[in-house]
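As a warm-up, study this chain.
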Amino acid sequence: MKGQAISEGAQAIALNSGLNQERQNAHNFYEHFGFEKSSMGFRYSIESKLDSN
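Now compare it with the structure written out below.
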């Protein structure tokens, strides 16, 4: 994947992974291969807000 990204002129490879403890092994895997934590995401679930009204 890195080789293809470089050959196509990409400046970065990005992925999203959950923040829960169940994803820790995946996070360790990504970090082992040079990925760095770079952001935190947020979401607002409209469906759950509609159900409570």
